[in-house]
Amino acid sequence: MRRFLASVWEDKNILIFATFVFLFTALAGFAGAETLGEALMNSPMWEEFEKTLEEIQENPTFANAFITIFINNVTASLLMVVFGLFFGVFPLMALVTNGMLLGVVLGIASGESGANPFVLFVTTILPHGTLELPAILIAATFGIRLGMTVSRSIVGLFSSTARTRSVEDWKGIRRRALPILLGILVLLFFAALIEAGLITLLSDLA
């Protein structure tokens, strides 16, 4: 855990930036829930979101909910890391779309139910989001770092200073990759446990 936290802390500035992007787009999504909701509901991300819900609702057992949630979250996080190699664009866009999706869902849910959006967030998102959201932000941060290093490597073809810096960056990435990826998996594992438990409990009470 200490290696994981130390590895994450080395990119604290990118992590702060990623958190800001996520929160800003979540607030934008909430503020424009009615306008953005229709556009998002026609997007592939919303289709994937609905597909996941349907898979869980068809078989709302703890094991099925846990496996579905864990696999989806791990896949999304790994894609942010791997596709971050393409100049960090994909993880940045993933942060924007995920933040906006969260804001829109909260906006629509609070509008239809009349519930306070903060209460909805605390009761429905925060229990598992306490672990899941940091994992997503860390995955995006590492993906952006990969993209920045690739960009610096390309500049390094024409600049010895950038080349030296990129070599050091790649050494740091290799050193930190394993603890960061393992840490993300652990966070998502326990987040999926919590979310699957809540889904099972609510299903039993219904």
From TrEMBL:
The keyword Nucleotide-binding does not apply. Signal peptide: none annotated. The keyword NADP does not apply. Keywords: Membrane, Transmembrane, Transmembrane helix. InterPro entries: SpoIIM-like (IPR002798). The chain crosses the membrane at residues 65-89, 101-123, 135-159, 180-202. This is Stage II sporulation protein M.
